[in-house]
Amino acid sequence: MRMQTRDRTREGGRRALGLLVLLWAAAVSPSARQETGATLLERTVVLGASLSDGFNLKPELKASADFADVLAAQRSSAHPWEAVHSGGDATFFLDPIGTGRAQIAEAKKVRPTLVIAVDFLFWFAYGHQPEAQRETRLEEGFAFLETFGCPLVVGDLPDVSKALDGEGFLGQPMVVAAQVPTPATLAKLNERIADWAAARGDVLVIPLAATLERMHSGEAIELHGRTFTGGSKRFLQADLLHPSVDGALLVGLLVWDVLERERDEVAEEDVRWSLEDGRQGLLERTAQERAKALEREARREERRRKRAERTKEPAECGG
């Protein structure tokens, strides 16, 4: 009788202890419950190099805008969305390892539910390094991205060799031949990206390589039932390396297209699929900054006009 009582007491104690553990876990781990119910787009981060940073879009827009702004501008008014963190860096090429590590660490602070890193891998493959090292360096880029426990969107590697004839700052190309992989290496690296993404299962790859090739050839680009024309003159800056505003919007549509096709959380009606609508959305997002810039420009023009009048008056009086 005492044995049965002790057994029941031990069993009751174990149940009580188990209940206490569950209650403690629920109290100290609210983030675990939040993660379970988090949606795909709830905490999106944008990482990468100059494309993600919105390099040199300001002259065209008269306002600053990065790739996160582009993506947000392409959402329909009925389904607004904002990235919670944008970490693109146009100086990525100077130190891919250090910059990549810093971007990953910063992005993890927001516990992302989706990482959009369309040009994150670019400078792990390109840049000043021995040809044989490019594959090893790309693996280091993978290793950074693999530390995220959420879906990823990356781009494959475009052939930017035509940028060797582009006109960047001071009329010079933005890249040199030593930074560009050989065609054979580039093909091998893109095969590796495809294999890596397929093995991971939570990585979506947008076709930057095929898209840039069509831009340069002038061929029409078919995307989500629409046809986009205009070639490199429309979609690239004069350096033939960085996208123009329309080029950035086109890359944005590549992202939304793959998400709409592969993820249930993104529906067709969520997105403005025309470049004109996306550009309008981007102009609306940047309207305040552009208005201030135009005001400053008008004041500068007024000062120039007054200076010109003052220099003209003595000459007229002397006449």
Q: How would you characterize the overall build of this protein?
A:
It is a single chain. With 319 residues, the protein is α/β, with parallel strands linked by helices. 54% of the residues lie in helices and 7% in strands. It has helices at residues 2-28, 30-37, 50-53, 58-61, 67-73, 96-108, 122-125, 134-145, 183-200, 208-217, 231-235, 245-262, 275-285, 287-318; strands at residues 44-46, 85-86, 114-117, 152-155, 203-206, 221-223, 226-228. The longest helix is centred in the last third of the chain and has 32 residues, at 287-318. The N and C termini lie far apart (128 Å).
> Helical residue percent?
40-55%
* CATH fold annotation: Rossmann fold
Helix count from the secondary structure assignment:
14
Provide the gyration radius in Å. Answer: 26 Å
CATH superfamily: SGNH hydrolase
Assess the beta-strand content as a share of residues.
5-15%
Q: Average pLDDT across residues? A: 88
Largest sheet: 5 strands, parallel
Structural class, by secondary structure, is: alpha/beta
Unreliable runs: 1-34
Structural domains: how many: 1
- What's the end-to-end separation, in Å? 128 Å
- Strand arrangement across the biggest beta sheet: 2-1-3-4-5
Which overall shape is indicated by the principal axes computed on the Cα atoms?
globular
Number of strands: 7
What is the CATH level 1 assignment?
Alpha Beta
Corresponding CATH architecture: 3-Layer(aba) Sandwich
Order of helices and strands: HHEHHHEHEHHEHEHEEHHHH
Main features:
single chain; alpha/beta; about 325 residues; Rossmann fold; five-stranded parallel beta sheet; two-stranded antiparallel ribbon; 14 helices; disordered N terminus
